[in-house]
Design a protein that fits this description.
- The chain has 432 residues and is of the alpha/beta class.
- The protein is built from 14 helices and 15 strands.
- It folds into 3 domains: 2-181, inorganic pyrophosphatase (n-terminal core) (Alpha-Beta Complex); 187-301, Diaminopimelate Epimerase, Chain A, domain 1 (Roll), CATH 3.10.310.30; 313-426, CBS-domain, CATH 3.10.580.
- 33% of the residues lie in helices and 20% in strands.
- β6 (203-205) and β7 (208-217) form a beta hairpin.
- α4 packs antiparallel against α5, α7 (187-198) crosses α8 (224-235) and α13 packs across α14 (419-426).
- The termini are far apart.
Length: 432
């Protein structure tokens, strides 16, 4: 079985690239994530008989032999399909127009900077002389126009323009393109924009005119990207960043827009776990302080991609460790005496594992308490470097569901960062 898939919160460029891949790989089944952008969902609801897609639940993962990934190069943004990450003998093909290095390691790829990912695929469709229908051309043009701002974003290339012309020659319908790309702007969006303008401030950061705006949302508001775009245009700043606190879901939605060629908004957002393009980007962070988000973005704009506060500023040290031959009974005594939930296991100054209170669930017999800690410790240890940012640490803790991160430099453990340490930065828990 071959499947083609793309990133969560699927936009038109991702959908277009997925469908284009099914033309290039006729045996491939298009599998879309659960989360689709509202306009994409509306398009598919109308054209579901033409563009037939599957979901994760329709796929038997053990039968997948080839995975074709489009418009993304990061496992973390693939939804549940990322469960294929460790599948043996899986062929992976990658089509991506982002220049950043991802963690998907394909056996073949087409990756180069382009305004829209569909442009890369149109190039191959032309080379293979594939026939595309007018409705396919319309979908492809919708994706191309969305990601290039109708050929007006700074990242747009000449090849994007040639691809648009090619699709128009194949009878792409601009009326349909316009209707689905028309931004949704209603009373909720007007209210958000009005509140943003009431508190608007301009600043200079690394030579750019920048406006940060932090706003609490009482309920869900879609099309916030449209609001931030209008906010930037009204203020006439180089960069606008909206930090929206979604209290109901305990998260921050960060949306950025830029209109200067030498500013990479997508790069800024990728540093925070999101993504985007030079002119536009977004990220979603759980349980963070909006002020900390602004500080981080300011540092990133300044060019300090490690942010002003680093792990070395927050970690606890020195670190109490145990050797791998320590009996489990003694480890239990140390954990109780020191009041901690876990300890690094170190041999010859090298970190070889972590033992936590949770690992004691593996102990079924009293006699096992005499066994060495190496028999029960977790050897797959997630670590972090001292120069990394608190946001990167928090992301690792959430991803791996762990409460502590050993801080390692030159192969040696120099400190440890716990959830409590991170909270001092992300939450308002510091004493006045």
């Amino acid at each position: 079985m071959q499947i083609v898939t793309t990133h969560k919160n699927t936009d038109f460029d991702a959908l277009a690239s997925t469908i284009a891949a099914t033309i290039l790989y006729p045996e491939a089944i298009p599998v879309l994530p659960k989360n689709l952008n509202p306009n994409v969902k509306a398009f598919l609801s109308i054209h579901k008989d033409i563009f037939k897609t599957s979901t994760f639940d329709d796929i038997l993962l053990d039968q997948v032999k080839r995975l074709i990934v489009v418009d993304i190069n990061n496992w973390g943004r693939l939804g549940r399909i990322r469960r294929l990450k460790n599948k043996k003998n899986l062929e992976i093909f990658l089509w991506d127009h982002h220049s950043n290095v991802g963690n998907i390691k394909p056996m073949w790829k087409c990756q180069e900077p382009m305004g829209a990912n569909i442009t890369l695929m149109i190039r191959q469709l032309k080379l293979e002389k594939k026939v595309i229908t007018p409705i396919q051309a319309t979908l492809f043009l919708t994706g191309l126009y969305e990601d290039t701002g109708s050929l007006m974003f700074p990242a747009t290339t000449a090849e994007d323009a040639y691809a648009a012309a090619y699709l128009l020659e194949r009878k792409a319908d601009l009326n349909i393109v316009r209707s689905f790309l028309r931004p949704a702007y209603g009373e909720k969006q007007k209210d958000v924009l009005f509140r943003m303008l009431q508190s608007a401030k301009r600043d200079k950061v690394n030579g750019y005119s920048v406006s940060f705006n932090k706003l609490d949302l009482k309920d869900y508001v879609d099309s916030l990207a449209v609001v931030v775009h209008m906010y930037r245009e009204i203020l006439n700043v180089d960069v606008a960043i909206g930090v929206f606190s979604d209290q109901a879901r305990n998260r921050c939605i960060i949306i950025g827009r830029s209109n200067v060629e030498d500013f990479n908004m997508g790069g800024i957002m990728r540093s925070m776990g999101g993504g985007g393009h030079p002119a536009a980007g977004s990220a979603i962070l759980k349980s963070v302080n909006p002020d900390a988000v602004e500080d981080t973005i300011r540092a990133l704009i300044q060019g300090n991609h490690q942010t002003s506060v680093q792990i070395s500023d927050l970690m606890s040290f020195p670190v109490f460790t145990v050797p791998p031959d320590t009996p489990m009974k003694k480890v239990a005594s140390v954990l109780k005496k020191r009041g901690c939930t876990g300890l690094p296991v170190v041999e010859n100054e090298n970190l070889v594992g972590i033992i936590s209170r949770m690992d004691f669930k593996k102990v079924k017999k009293e006699s096992q308490l005499k066994a060495p800690v190496k028999a029960f410790m977790n050897r797959n240890v997630t670590t972090i470097a001292p120069g990394k940012s608190p946001i990167q640490a928090a992301r690792l803790m959430m991803k791996h569901d762990i409460g502590r991160l050993p801080v390692v430099e030159d192969g040696h453990i120099i400190g440890i960062l716990t959830r409590s340490d991170a909270m001092l930065y992300f939450y308002d828990l510091l004493p006045d």
